[in-house]
Amino acid sequence: MSAASDRSTARRTLIVIGLVLATVVGLALVWATRRVLVWALVAVFFAVALKPLVDRLERRVRRRALATLLVFLAAFALFAAVGALIVVPLVDEVGRFADRAPELVREAQAGQGPLGRLLERFHLLRYAEPGQLRRFGARLGDPTVGVVRSVAQAVAALVTVVVLAYLMVLEAPKIVAAALRLTGDGPAARLRRIGRDSSRIVTGYLTGNLLISVICGGLTFVVLFLLGVPFAAVIALTVAVFDLIPLVGATLGAIAAAGAAFLHSPTAGIVVLVFFVVYQQVENHLLQPVIMARAVRLNPLTVLVSVLLSVELAGLVGALLAIPAAGIAQVLLREYVPAGRQALPQPADGGPAEPAGPPDTGPAAGAIAPERPEAGPGAPERPPAGG
């Protein structure tokens, strides 16, 4: 008896050690491939968002590959058009700034012009001396290699995400069919509902995020236009595009707009900074919870809590996936909640909430009883019509 007990204990110990080792190896693999996993996760996000458009177009062109190609080309053309609206005026402004740079430097060193008066007001004129400027210029070359490496990684990530999303959308029917073949008819129908609702949630999230960005860009344009800042429309469009990026997008847009406003005048820069401080509080605690709650059909409190927790746990990726993840979790809870809680009988209008007699234990227990005739309990049943 003791030998059998010792063998059982040894077997359990080996099983526990194996599970612990497998968990450690799995976590190590996830950590080593975290960059690729993040790219794949973002690709899934965009693939789920674009799949409904491809499905609609496929019903017209009758070819999945052609529909996928057309949708991705349209998305690429849209992003290229928005980028051209931002980059072309920005390049012109950079050229004009480069032509005026020597004059601006001389004015700044003499304490003249908008930049010189700003440096003088904040006691920063000593940093505009020729020696200081040369030292700053020499230091700018130090991080050049890091900047180039970061740009190359960003381009590689973008290309990888686009290719993965394209292949996911293209092969979606085959992937779904193969997954449903592994289940029965009942689970397959449930999985179809989950997939349909999840796709609706992701699409609603993207729509809501786009609406928030449009509001941010529109308000920014109004403020910059009233302050007389040059190229207010281009700056507002840049802010709207930046605002699409979760967690840091609004801050990047605020930096760009405030920098342009400070170059126009210190007063305009301060007003723009105050505007963005107030607007970010309104967006984070009012616009985003309310709009996302309507787009994703989530409670505003759930939206806000999920965003805060996801940002704390996973940073930028967590902010990007927080609201869709909360919506998909709600779908899963609704699908897998015990069916008995959704099939409770409802009392008739004006009737008692519960029957006065003992509970029915017959085969029809739990079902809603048919309507009784108006006669008393002792009256005989009415014969059927025509009987």
UniProtKB/TrEMBL annotation:
Membrane topology of this protein: Multi-pass membrane protein
Give the top-rank taxon of the lineage listed in the UniProt record for this protein. Bacteria
Q: Where is the composition biased (Low complexity)?
A: 362-379
Q: Where is this region: Disordered?
A: 343-387
UniProt keywords (A-Z) are: Cell membrane, Membrane, Transmembrane, Transmembrane helix, Transport
Ribonucleoprotein listed as a keyword: no
Q: Where in the cell is it found?
A: Cell membrane
Q: Which residues cross the membrane?
A: 12-31, 37-54, 66-91, 151-170, 202-227, 233-255, 262-282, 302-333
Name the family: Belongs to the autoinducer-2 exporter (AI-2E) (TC 2.A.86) family.
**What's this protein's name?**
Predicted PurR-regulated permease PerM
Which species does the entry assign this protein to?
Micromonospora tulbaghiae
